[in-house]
Structure formats: C-alpha cells, structure tokens
C-alpha cells in the first residue's frame, strides 16, 4: 500500500531532518580531527573539514548523484512520480548487474521533484561523511590544492561508484540472484560510507607517508599528541548526536516504526564501543585514555551502521563492544606493527569497524526486519539465524570495497602526486601548515 | 480516541527527535563544566561528561529502565500492543503505591516493540542528564574509577527509583488518591531529573570536600576561576537548544498542540532567568558576570521544566525570573555561607531551581492543561487557580526527593570512599587530574 | 482545502523544529564572531551573543511580536481558530498599506493558541538572528550597557517594523496592488532578517568608529586578526546546519513538498558561495584564506534565503557563487575603500548578500512556486521568466530597508551615545573589554 499524502509529508520531513543531522556531523569530524592534530596545523585541519563540504556538494551535484542514484526511478516512501532513470549494467547469465547510474546530472531532470531532491540532500551529506574521513588520516602534511582535487574526485566519482553497487541498483545489491541472501546489505553505510572513507584514508596515508619525526630511525615512535583533547571529545559527542540521523534517517520513512529500534541500537553500540575501548586501554596501558575511548565509541557507531535495523538490542551492545576492541587494537596495530601514520585513527575507526559492521549483520541479523530487501523474499537473516548466504554477501561486499576503493584511491593519489604534488615541503611541515600553506595561524596573538 | 497510524508515526518521530536533542545536551554540560574548571583538569572534566553517557546507557539498559518503567505496559500516543509489566507496590488502605518496576530488563521482552524502545531512548537521555549533573559539582578532585562506579549506580538504581515514583506508576504519582491534586506532577523533570542530579551533587560535594585551596584558614575564599568562559557560554547555548527537546518532547506526542506553548514557555523562562541573574549580579557586584548569567539562564530552564505545559507565557517569565534570582543567590550562598565547593554551580542550578520549578507548578498551573493527569479528573491547577492540594503534592515530591536521594547518595559515596577512595591524592589535585589521573594533558604542546 | 488535523500537527512540529534549529544558530554567530575577535575581548563577544537572546526574547514578547504580526489573524497551515488581529495602515487610493500591527502584546490574547505560540517561537529566533548580527560588526569597542539598550530597541521596535511590512500584512507585501509582481517577496529573510541586521551593523559601526589602531594615520590598515579561527570555522558549520531550519522551516508546513527543494537550494548556494570566495581570494591574495571562505559560504546562505523556494538548483548555485564573490569584494572594499571597521565582515555578509538575495529572486524565480503569494494570482516569476514587476518590487524592498533601517538605527545609536555613551574608554579597549568591562578574562589562568 503506498503511503498516504500525509505519510509522504512526514517521511519527507524525516529524511530532511536526518540529512540536517548528518550534515552537522561535519563539525564533529572537524573537532575530532583538529583536536587530535597539533596547534600549528589546526587551521588547515579545520579548513579541510569546512571546504570538503562545498567541494563535495558541487561534485556530487554535477556528477556524483547521477552515478550513484541515476539508476533509481523512484523512492516509494517519499511519493511523487517515477522519474526517468538509467543504470549502465553488465548482463551475466540473463541477469543485469549494475555498474553506474547515468541520469539526473546536475539535478536538471528532477529540479522540482521533491523525492529526488530530498534524496539528493540525504545522499550528499553521506558522501560528505565519506569524503571527510581521509582528511583525518592524511592531516598535517597534505597539500591544500591536492586536497581540493581529491574532494572533487571523491564526491563525483569514487564514492558514488561503490555506493551505486550497494544502494543504487548496482551489482552488490543483486547478489541475491546468485543465492547469496538478500545481496550485500548495508543499512546506513558501514561499507558504503565508512569503509570507503577508511580505505581511501589508508591509500592516502600510504601515498603521503608518515609525518616528519613520527617514526624514528631507531625504531621508536613519537606520540605527536593532538593539541586540544576537549575539541576531540566535543566532536565525538557531536558525531554521536548526528549519527541518530545517519541511521534512523536511513529508513527514508518515519512511518516505519523500526526507527525506534534503530536509534536504540545506535545508542547501545556506541556505549558498548566506548566502554570496551576505555576498559581495554585502561587495563593494558594503565590510564583511562580518553582519545581511545572516543575512537572506540565512534567504532561502535561505525559498526552498527550496517546492521542497526536488523539486530536486537543485546546484539547491538555486543557489536559495539567488539568494534570498540577492534578499533583500539587496530589503532595501535596500524601504528606499531604496520607503521602507518594516521593522526586521528580514522583507518581503524572507519575501515576496520566498518568491515566488522557489515560482517556482523551477516552474523546477527535476526529476521525481524527486511522483508523483500533488494527484491529477495523473506526477512534478512544472518548466519546465527540460519542464512549463511547472507554472510557470504557481506564478505563479498567488504572484499569488493577493498579491492575497488584501495587501488583506485591509491592510483588517484599517485597521479595527483605526479601532477601537482601531494605533500607540503618539509619546511612547511616543520613550521606548520597554517602559517605557510593557509596564510594564517589558527590562534593568532592579539 | 487512539491516535491514527500516521499520528503514531508522527509521535514516534517526535519522541526520537526529542531524545536526540536531549542527548546533545551532553555536549552542553561538557562545555559548561569544562569551561568553569581549570585547564589542568579540562580533560578529566570532558572525560566524565563523555563517559557518563556509555556507562549510564549500559546501566540503564541492563537494570535502570526496568526499575523505572517496568511497571508501565503501554504508551498510548506511540501505539503498539501493551507489553507485560510489573510494578512492585505497597498496599495501603486499599490503594497500591508503587515502589519500583520489575520487567523489561535489558530490553529483552521488548526487543522489537517500537513504543517501548522509543521510550527507552527518551528515558535514557533523561537519565544521562541527571547523571552528568554531579560531575560538575564534584569536578577537579573526583577519582575517575570512583566516578565510573557512580555512573552505574546512578543510572541503574538511584535515578530510576525516584523516577519510577513520579513517572513510572510509583507512589508520588498516586497522591491524588489521598486528595492531593493530581499527585506530584513534574512534566519534564524539574524534580525527577534536575533535583535528583542536584541533590546527588550536593551529597557528592560534601563527601569529597572542597578543592585544595578553595577555603582558606583565614576565612577567605579563592575564586579558582574556570579556564575557558567561551566554552561555558557555548555550553549554555547548547543546553538551551537541547532543552526544547527535553520539554516539548515530553508530551510524547506531536499530535498534542500543547507542544507550541511548552516550547514558548521554555524560551521565555530561560530569558527571564538569564536576564534576572545578569541584572542582579550587575547590580550587586558591579560587573555583568556572564558566568552568573549562564547559570541564571539554566536555572530558568530547570525551573520551567516541571510546569512548562501547565502555565501561561507570562507565568513562565515570572518563574524564570525567580529561578534566575534563586540561582544567583544560591550559588553565592552555598559558597559563602555553607562553604560548599561546587565549581560550576550545579547544586544551585539544578537542585534549588529544580525545587522551585516543582513548587511553581503548584502555584501557577492555570487549569488549561492536564485533564485526567495521573488518573485524576479535571485539569491540573495550582494554588492561585484554586487547588491547594496540588501545591501539597508538589511539596511532598520535593521533600521526598531530598529525603530519599540525599541519604542514599551520601551513603553510596561514603561506601565507595571506603572501598576504593573517592578523591584523588593531593599531589594529583595540585598537578591536575589530567596528567596524573587521565595520562594526558587536555592541551598538549606540539 | 484546510490541512487535516494530523497535517496540522506535522506542520506545527515542523515549525517548532525549525525554530529550534534557528535558535541554535546563536551559537554559530557566537563562535564566528568570537573567533574573529581578539582574546582580550572574547568573553565580551560571547556575552553579547548570549545575552542578546534573553534580552531580545523579552523585548519581542512584550512588544515586538505585536508590532510585527499583530495584524495577522491566523496561520492556515498550523490550524486553530482565527485570533483577533489589528494592523495600523495607511489608506492610499482605496488600498490599505499596513505600517505596524497592534495586537497580541505579551502574548496575553493568544496565551493558549498553539498556532500563534509556534509562530512567536519561530519569529523570535528570526528576530534573534537579526539582532545578533550587529554585535559582530560592533565588537571589541561597544559598551555593554549600550548594547543591552540596543537589544531591547532592536527586538521590540526596529526589527518588527520592517518585518511587518514584508511578512505581517504590511505595505511592502501589498505592492502587487500597484502591479509590482507579488509585492516584495522574501521567503525566509534576506531583507527582513539579514539586511536589517547588516544595515543596523553598518550604522552602528559608523557611530562607534573603528577600533583603536585599525586605521593608521599613514594610511596603512592593521589586520587585528581574530584569536581563534577554529571557533570561526565551527561557527560557520553550525550556521550552515541551523540555516536548514531557517529556510525549510519558513514554509510553516511540512505538508508542502517544496521543503526538499528549499533545503537543497540552501545547501547548493552555501557551497557555491564558499567555493567562489575561496577561489577568488586564493587567486588574488595567493593564500586559501579560510576566514574569507567562511564569509563566502555564509554570504551564499544569506543570499539564497529570499529566493530558496522559487528557484531551480542550478540557479541556487549561481546565486551562491555571486554572493560569495560579492561578500569577498565587499569585505575588502568596506575596509580598504570605505575604511569601515567591521571585525567579522557582518556588513558584507548580511547587508550586501542580503540585498543580492532579494534581487536574485526578482531575476531567477522560475514560476514553479508561489501561486497566490501575497494574494496575487499566479506563481512568482522573476525578470528572466517574464515578470519585470517582481524585480521592481524586490528593488523597492531593498531600498526601503536601507532608507528606513539605516537612519533609524543611526539616530538610535547617536541618541544612546549622548545618553550613556556607546563606546568603552580607550584604556578599556587597549586592555580588552573582558577584564575591565565584563570583570573577568575569557581564559583565566589557573
């Protein structure tokens, strides 16, 4: 039964409010990243978090939205007429597997279609989240011009392609045709948004290399502590706030009573993640490291993003706890074992916990939600509730993310490096990017 | 008439959005408290405000929600089937007076019940508000491990019990049976949330004692000014923002047109409180003390929280003005007369203004709202509109809060003090809790 | 067809949520302005942004709302009965041209009317936005007592009068009677809110004169850089977030599917403005000046505020780009050519971009929205879509704003200067307003 006019209005309002909340997460990222970086780069870090928004919005408006959702003709919960849509697909064995969309460029064909416009807004702020993640891992050494070029590439090309595969009628959503559960299911973006951001961040951090002085020749590692931990905590709370819009808004409908369980699961997983990381680091490093608690809490949020609609509250706590531990172990391991310099822990928070979140759905989805998801009959169930194929689809989605995003991002960054240079000169890094790259200190003296 | 399906959806969305806003108040508390404390303890103060959220959420999920709302079987505005409920009650003279709920532990029995889950979310962020209040009054000297134990106790036991008595079918809501108006009425938590937090803060501040150097042997009092007043002002604005969700969300329904008046009263009382405190302190101390204006504004918000749905706009202004003056006088009196060290003024803001708010309802409720409240016929009226019994019920609620919360909190803190110690060693306090207790400065130097 | 009961509830909730978001913009203004000013005045700047809210709310409650909307008897989208209303009007040639409203003082006559109360809330936060704008341009030298008097005047008298003319049945909304399109159309306040604030800011900055040391006798201009650019960036993001409530809330209805396009246009214009200003300043000053990017982004938001409901997405991008360039050129020109000292760029951001926004509607309104606006048949069209009269009405509205607001504000400030003095003594300015005017530093040392 299609929603009534009033339900459509309610759903439209819900999607818009969700989008507003997600947009506000940009400030959360800005404060977390700036708090975890040094004062001499504080303006540069804030600047990347500010500017990724306009750059990404323009790139997504011109091209990205078309690639990602150009193959979708309507959003039933939001009403409105079906718009012309076109998905470029491969035909394999009689089945179509979508690769990218190709309509609605610059919103011209849907300039007055409320449902398409609301979805643009909602999709744009999700893109923005993915695009801002690498600015943390690549902070304190990234050339601002190279960052700007990245912003267009990420928003117009890289993010939309993988997003199309999961949410835009693309091939990962069609894996159910091959008997793999409901295809790759990612309710609000553990893979689409967070892994894409985290894997891109990994590629970028590798191309840039560590900050000057981070890894010494004698094998010791310098802490290079961030300059304002209250900022980082404030940013974490802002992210936890905005995440309610991220997850509960992803029903695209307030008529769907599942929004309550989604919000509760989001809260519980963040709590489990924050507490687990805090206790883990307190037990192992003998201090209640609040930076790690922040990252654990965020890891819990990242992980619950995929399964939030499909699992029970107790499972959400467990998913959060595991994510918190994985994040803590990941942050430490990336630095100490792999000697990758990620000033804010973005790769672990978004990449590792994002992968875990997608897999956890394949384990704990309890069949209480998702009837007909991706056109497959019955609800979504994980391995523990009888559907091993769903776990398979989740694995494929995770692997596809790494296999696609990493090399493309790596190649893109290498290309930019050749063309205009990715990294600021060493003397700029020593003095700080603020004065020499941005032209102003973050905290000028009167 | 039960709400239509669409109304239920709207109400569910309203409750969730209200909960999101209240959750965001955590950042407001964090910034107010951190701004009002010293730089050497800034990370510790932020940390308590961050960690109370996950700790409280887990404690409330496991036990607290069951104690508080285990006796409530349904939320009519949110729809859904009635869930099994159980309230442990005393029978006195044929009447049942509830003491605590005992169902829905860990949300197991309501894992897929949207109304119960939405109420969990809404109730959890209210618990979080109450639980974070003492972290201000007890800042700059509280051991982090003792704080953590407190977090579980407050969220799982102390807050839920008093909350049950007023909102969860408990005895204070049944005082109407004894002819005392509609029983104790607290629309959004002047007593349930704010007095509970403020009285617990008082007990904690007494058990901890004042900060080193606050009260000198010669009788002089040191200011120990906070390190970042812009943070405090920012936090105040965030609290004023989130408070709209606190009060207007407490209808549990957007179909109730009273939400408009509630929001307006919330705004007007905050304005009255802020302005009154500013002018009072300007007149008496000859400087427009902005810290006091912040506390006055917050005092106005605390006070209007109980009566916001029951009074006219002009009464809201008056309630706010009185709250602002009480807060200012209270902050000064607690420090100078009672020599209690509350770095942020939480006891006055939440305890004193909370009590005033509950009483003000017993004076100014004008009979325009609350028909059938707590099962009593007719609307809610205060003394000035003909119902002296209502004022009696308000007084009993306030006295019960002090009589129950204070000794229990005091005893609990004393117990923790014996078991693991409540206070950091003097050398930690001198150096700052950040470096020695938390393991990192709030503002490390590059 | 009047909205159903449920639609009314949805619309009421929408207006309230919009108002909450706009109220939160106060923190955005506070951080932008404080970030752009010096540490020695940081508390004073925060204080003005905090205190304008209670002062403005009380002034608007007592008098302002009555002057602005006293002539409006009902808000159809919000339901409820029509309230008695009275507009004082001039009769010219058989037509009534409203000058000010005269009912609903102190909300007495509408104390329990949800529609009128919701509109009060929404209108009050818009007033607050206008009233806070001058605190930026006049920062670092304005006496706090003079500021307080201003707060009452702005909220009770100046803002409501022009607002009445455009939104409250006043004469600018009746220009359609003279064949000028639909009369002056300002969807969410480019002229009503932003120009009024910006023009008042200009008058105030002129009366106060520049800060000590800004313009040297030898013709050189000192930068006097703000002390915390991360604050300014954070404030910009908060403003961009709250602006969604500002614009999309101004439908006064979530049943109006145009809310989606409005939100998208708001996002796109901000992106266009931010990016254009960044690239302009990068190209001309050879550094990616983030302060200018912030102002450009805000300029884009200011400009789209009037036309957001009437234009297509591509037009919104263009409007934003032009606004970003105008803001950048305006900030520089006001300082270098006109030697007006506006520490935060408020005059350019709100005054110049506000004017451009109103005019842009007269150019780009495409006829897809606004049927029956201001009682004129047919949709709203700009010059490029066939209605030159609409552009005329837009010009008149802009001119009327300057012609009315500037002299009244200037005269008021001059009067205050005579009565109690507008400016702090030079020694206070040198030392900083915080210690001498406010009685406390913003960042006291432990």
What is this structure, in a nutshell?
Three copies of one chain form a homotrimer. Chain A is 62% helix and 3% strand. Chain A is mostly helical.
Helix tally of chain A equals 13
Beta-strand portion of chain A reads: under 5%
Measure the end-to-end span of chain A.
64 Å
- For the secondary structure, the number of strands of chain A is 2
Strand order of the largest sheet of chain A: 1-2
**Percent of residues of chain A in helical segments?**
55-70%
Low-confidence stretches of chain A: none
What is the approximate shape of chain A?
globular
Counting copies of identical and different chains, the oligomeric state is homotrimer
Radius of gyration of chain A: 21 Å
The run of helices and strands of chain A is: HHEEHHHHHHHHHHH
Main beta sheet of chain A: 2 strands, antiparallel
- State the secondary-structure class of chain A: mainly alpha
Query: Could you report the average pLDDT of chain A, rounded to the nearest whole number?
Result: 97
Biggest interface goes to: A-B, 61 and 57 residues
Descriptive overview:
The structure is a homotrimer of 446-residue chains. The mean pLDDT of chain A is 97. The radius of gyration of chain A is 21 Å and the shape is globular. Chain A has 446 residues and is mainly alpha-helical. Chain A has a two-stranded antiparallel ribbon. Chain A is built from 13 helices and 2 strands. In chain A, α9 runs antiparallel to α10 (346-364). Chains in contact: A-B, A-C, B-C. At the A-B interface, α1, α6, α7, α8 and α9 of A face α1, α2 and α3 of B.
């Amino acid at each position: 039964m299609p929603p009534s006019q009033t339900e459509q209005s309610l759903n439209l309002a819900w999607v818009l409010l969700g989008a507003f909340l997600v947009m506000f997460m940009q400030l959360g990222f800005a404060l977390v990243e700036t708090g975890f970086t040094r004062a001499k780069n504080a303006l540069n870090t804030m600047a990347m978090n500010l500017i990724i928004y306009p750059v990404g919005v323009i790139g997504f408006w011109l091209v990205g939205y078309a690639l990602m959702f150009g193959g979708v003709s309507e959003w039933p919960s939001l009403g409105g007429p079906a718009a012309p849509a076109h998905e470029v697909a491969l035909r394999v064995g009689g089945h179509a597997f979508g690769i990218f969309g190709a309509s609605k460029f610059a919103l011209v064909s849907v300039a007055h279609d409320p449902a398409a416009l609301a979805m643009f807004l909602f999709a744009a702020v999700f893109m923005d989240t993915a695009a801002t993640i690498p600015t943390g891992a690549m902070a304190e050494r990234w050339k601002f011009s190279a960052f700007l070029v990245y912003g267009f590439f990420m928003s117009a090309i890289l993010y939309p392609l993988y997003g199309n595969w999961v949410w835009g009628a693309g091939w990962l959503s069609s894996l159910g045709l091959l008997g793999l559960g409901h295809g790759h299911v990612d309710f609000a973006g553990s893979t689409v948004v967070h892994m894409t951001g985290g894997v891109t961040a990994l590629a970028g951090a590798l191309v840039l290399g560590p900050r000057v002085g981070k890894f010494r020749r004698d094998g010791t590692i310098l802490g290079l502590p961030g300059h304002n931990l209250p900022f980082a905590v404030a940013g974490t709370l802002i992210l936890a706030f905005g995440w309610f819009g991220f997850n509960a808004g992803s029903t695209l409908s307030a008529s769907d009573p599942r929004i309550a369980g989604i919000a509760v699961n989001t809260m519980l997983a963040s709590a489990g993640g924050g507490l687990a990381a805090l206790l883990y680091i307190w037990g192992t490093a003998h201090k209640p490291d609040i930076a790690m608690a922040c990252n654990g809490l965020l890891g819990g949020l990242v992980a619950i993003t995929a399964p939030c609609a499909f699992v029970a509250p107790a499972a959400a706590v467990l998913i959060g706890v595991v994510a918190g531990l994985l994040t803590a172990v990941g942050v430490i391991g990336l630095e100490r074992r792999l000697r990758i310099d990620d000033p804010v822990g973005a790769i672990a928070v978004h990449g590792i916990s994002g992968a875990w979140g997608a897999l956890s759905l394949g384990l704990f989805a309890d069949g209480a939600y998702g009837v007909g998801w991706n056109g497959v009959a019955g609800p979504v169930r994980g391995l523990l509730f009888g559907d091993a194929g769903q776990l398979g689809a989740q694995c494929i989605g995770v692997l596809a993310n790494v296999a696609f995003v990493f090399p493309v991002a790596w190649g893109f960054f290498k290309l930019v490096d050749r063309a205009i240079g990715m990294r600021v000169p060493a003397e700029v890094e020593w003095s700080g990017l603020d004065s020499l790259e941005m032209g102003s200190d973050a905290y000028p003296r009167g």
